[in-house]
């Protein structure tokens, strides 16, 4: 299948699913999910795989075993192209449109220690600062899970304190309802963003991957 964009039916499907997250709705509209969500997602990540690696398309079912929220279905469809553990490129479609991102989404204590050691070291830490500042200047959001205070042993005036607070670090942007999401041109938008995220992903892999 050639990617021609996510149809409006994909966004409408998730809009309705947020209102009626039930098996009855899912069973009655599963064909919409397969045709308008899953098939286009498979098509666009297939375009990315030769350059960015094999993609994982997430299952639509929520794991409700340990959650107070027992709604059975995810209200978005995500795809992840990993470079290392919990590190790589991400694409999502939901009722709010399309989101593109990259970075590391979780780190074991060992990987987090490696990340903070690299951020604290002047050479690698300054390099990450330049990468993050360049992405921010290009209009990308910089986010991730962060400590509210500072890591133990870090001075309050450390020049990279904000980066040291991160327990995950991601860059991305929400395309939302931009008309491009409904066209084949989205392929080049995603590819360009993934390439822009490349230095961040490379830095994380180099300094945290075992």
UniProtKB/TrEMBL annotation:
Signal peptide from the UniProt entry: none
Lineage: superkingdom: Bacteria
One Pfam family it belongs to: DUF2461
InterPro entries, per database record: CHP02453 (IPR012808), UCP028451 (IPR015996)
Name the UniProt record assigns to this protein: TIGR02453 family protein
Organism of provenance: Microlunatus endophyticus
Organism phylogeny: Bacteria, Bacillati, Actinomycetota, Actinomycetes, Propionibacteriales
């Amino acid at each position: 299948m050639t990617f021609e964009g996510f149809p409006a039916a994909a966004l409408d499907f998730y809009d309705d699913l947020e209102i009626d997250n039930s098996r009855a709705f899912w069973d009655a509209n599963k064909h919409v999910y397969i045709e308008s969500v899953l098939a286009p997602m498979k098509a666009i990540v297939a375009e990315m795989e030769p350059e960015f690696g094999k993609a994982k398309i997430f299952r639509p079912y929520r794991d409700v075993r340990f959650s107070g929220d027992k709604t059975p279905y995810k209200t978005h469809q995500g795809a992840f192209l990993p470079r290392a553990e919990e590190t790589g490129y991400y694409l999502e479609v939901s009722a709010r449109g399309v989101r593109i991102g990259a970075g590391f989404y979780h780190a074991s204590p060992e990987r987090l220690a490696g990340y903070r050691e690299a951020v604290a070291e002047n050479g690698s830490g300054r390099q990450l600062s330049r990468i993050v500042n360049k992405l921010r200047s290009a209009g990308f959001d910089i986010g991730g899970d962060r400590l509210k205070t500072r890591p133990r042993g870090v001075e309050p005036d450390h020049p990279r304190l904000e980066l040291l607070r991160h327990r995950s670090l991601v860059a991305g942007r929400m395309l939302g309802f931009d008309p491009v999401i409904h066209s084949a041109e989205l392929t080049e938008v995603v590819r360009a963003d993934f390439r822009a995220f490349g230095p961040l992903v490379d830095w994380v892999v180099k300094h945290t991957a075992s």
